[in-house]
Amino acid sequence: MTHNGGFEPVFCTIVPPHVLDRVARHEDPALADPARRTLERDAYERTHRRLTTVIGAPTVAAPAAAEAGKPHRTIYDLRHGTDLPGTKVRSEGEKDNKDATVNRAYDGLGATFELYLKAYERDSIDANGLPLNATVHYDNRYNNAFWNGEQMVFGDGDGEIFLDFTLPIDVIGHELTHGVTQYTANLTYFGQPGALNESLSDVFGSLIKQYSLGQTAAEADWLIGAGLLAPRVTGKALRSMKEPGTAYDDDVLGKDPQPATMDDFVRTGRDNGGVHINSGIPNHAFYLAATALGGHAWERAGQIWYDVLTGGRLKQDAMFADFATLTVSTARERYGEGEELEAVRKAWEQVGVRTL
Predict the structure, then answer these.
(1) Which ranges of 25-168 would DSSP assign to H, the alpha helix?
(2) Which of 320, 314, 248 is nearest to 283 (CA)?
(3) Residue 134: enclosing H or E segment and its boundaries?
(4) Region 117-136: what's the mean pLDDT?
(5) Which H or E run contains 330?
(6) Among 236, 320, 266, 196, which residue's Cα sits nearest to residue 18?
(7) Residue 125's closest CA among 82, 64, 62?
(8) Catalytic site residues?
């Protein structure tokens, strides 16, 4: 929450602006034009989000039929338009749609709801049964997906660099987790607090994928956006929590700029102070803690991160060291002086973040 008791939802996209900026400068119009158009739409939606935050947006009330502890999903189709939300094409409990994109969005919303409910007893992203709405087929060759403070929106990709944005379930979980952060710590979307905001979405996006696949920490690929890059791209995903900086190395996209430790922390005014870049550091810390503990990462490591995000002690302007210190104290409070505390403490030490 904000200092005046309200929420300040931010506009969050899965593809960082620095990636789209590079593609937009490419000499091939087939690559550059969709990237430019995406940047323009993102700028419009970001401004719209800011204005509705100031002016006030209509309240989205849960339908009378919605039950506590049950998801209430609605999928809309814009058919390549931009006037949200679009035409309703699938509601909660309805059979599969003939459009696979609609079904993937529906299933991804459900998987996210299930992880938060089953693992952490959280009823939807606001903990109070918030309906989960999503729009597919946004704009034409739109190279992004975003949470706008009220709903999910998915582009189809341009087919050259990016494919359909409903393909990776962790992308859906990532964006919806921005909603969880919005309703809890509401981390400032700039610099280290913004990188923590992005990292928490990567952490829980990955956990949602692992939970849906029944994977252990050792079995998981720890990639964000695997399956999103088109065949022509030399890369495997948007980000790697296991090995930040190795997700792609491509002649169009460039090389993945994420650092794994504070030794390579990137100081920049772009991308809101590098929120999608320096998130690699806390991402790697979580990976190290989760794999050291083994088993299912959403259980002990995920529980500690969730407790910190939702526990009320994480300030909006928290730095990496503040967050790390809270994970250490939370590990001690929940699990005592055991392997959980040691794993968390060592993980932050390995990425160069000091804990108090």
Answers:
(1) 29-55, 100-120
(2) 320
(3) strand 132-136
(4) 97
(5) helix 320-335
(6) 266
(7) 62
(8) 175, 276
Phi first, then psi: what are they for 326, rounded to 5°? -65, -35
Which tokens go with 104?
């993937």
Is the dihedral angle over the CA atoms 188, 189, 193, 197 positive or is it negative?
Answer: positive
Please report which confidence band the pLDDT of residue 57 belongs to, taking 50, 70 and 90 as the band edges.
very low
Task: Tell me the Ramachandran region of residue 203: left when phi exceeds 0, alpha when psi lies from -120 to 50, beta otherwise.
Answer: alpha
Angle subtended at Cα 291 by Cα 289 and Cα 296, rounded to the nearest 5 degrees:
105
Cβ 318 vs Cβ 309: under 8 Å: no
Asked if 208 and 202 touch (Cβ cutoff 8 Å), the reply is no
Q: Give the C-alpha separation, 62 to 56, whole Å.
A: 18
Name the strand (E) or helix (H) holding 87. Answer: strand 87-91
User: Per residue in 276-289, pLDDT tens?
Assistant: 999 999 999 999 99
Decide: 38 and 144 in contact? Cβ < 8 Å: yes
13/33 Cα distance (integer angstroms): 19
Q: For residue 93, what are the contacts with CB-CB under 8 A and spacing of at least 6?
A: none
